[in-house]
Amino acid sequence: MYVLEKAPAKINLSLDVLYKRPDRYHEIEMVMTTIDLADRIEITPLFENRIVIESENRFVPNDERNLAYGAAKLLKETFSIKQGVKIKIEKHIPVAAGLAGGSSDAAATLRGLNRLWSLGLKVNELANLGAQIGSDVSFCVYNSTALAQGKGEIITELPAPPACWVVLAKPIMGVSTQTVYENLNIDRVNHPDTKGMINALKTANYEKMCDYLGNALESVTLSMHPQVQQIKDQMESSGADAVLMSGSGPTVFSLVKQESRAYRIYNSLRGFCNEVYVVRTLGYHQSLD
Ligand code: ATP
Prior knowledge:
Strand content: 25-35%
Largest sheet: 7 strands, mixed
Helix content: 25-40%
Number of domains: 2
Bound molecules: adenosine-5'-triphosphate
Low-confidence stretches: 283-289
Shape: globular
CATH class of the largest domain: Alpha Beta
Mean pLDDT: 94
CATH topology of the largest domain: Ribosomal Protein S5, domain 2
């Protein structure tokens, strides 16, 4: 007997950093949506009372440093559960990429264990618990499109974006979110128009959504890793409707209406960049061309 959960990656449609708080965290405002690039989480009950992580990806820790381990430990402790579990993570989301792969695995573990242990927790209750694990976990519990405020734990759901293709490209290096925030000069932030983005989603306006894409961390990562700018340029010259770095990077994504153009961008980046994907925003399964 086991439970399966999909753990989708997220992209930032906008990311703003408002100010540095007295507790040293940054106050942020992010509009995020999930895409159909996902890890697969398989949870099996164990006879021994312990948490075992199995993953074949060499960049993913197989011990208590894994965010899925943290999620299982939190639920075990909060609800005094004595049963152990094996959590098998089939990794498809690039690691340290700005796509919240670890947070999504933790969120999928919360959802899966909520079912396995019949805890009956509602999505907002699971998201509140998720906030103790990491700032993107609450959003990933919702698994939809939302505005995240505070440190990322205050979630307001939004309509899914208009149907489109998403081309993702990740250069070889990973980026530490902490390093990017350390290099951010809060007085020189390029603030995106979060309200404009929310309005574009509420009115299902694809062109406006493209216009309002923006990420306050982009210039910081670009100055550290010029390859990210090269990918942006390549996507723009290959016909993307809009291009942005996700999260703290280094993954860059294009939004494209036409499937043929998505594959033109994909082909132009293969060979130049080691990880390239063509996916869709979630919730749209019909042909988009
Ligand atoms: P975010 O967009 O939330 O900042 P990210 O996509 O940049 O996250 P992750 O892929 O979540 O980054 O990985 C960041 C680090 O977290 C990795 O270097 C890895 O050591 C650690 N980690 C812990 N658990 C996991 C997991 N389940 N999957 C991937 N990385 C994990």
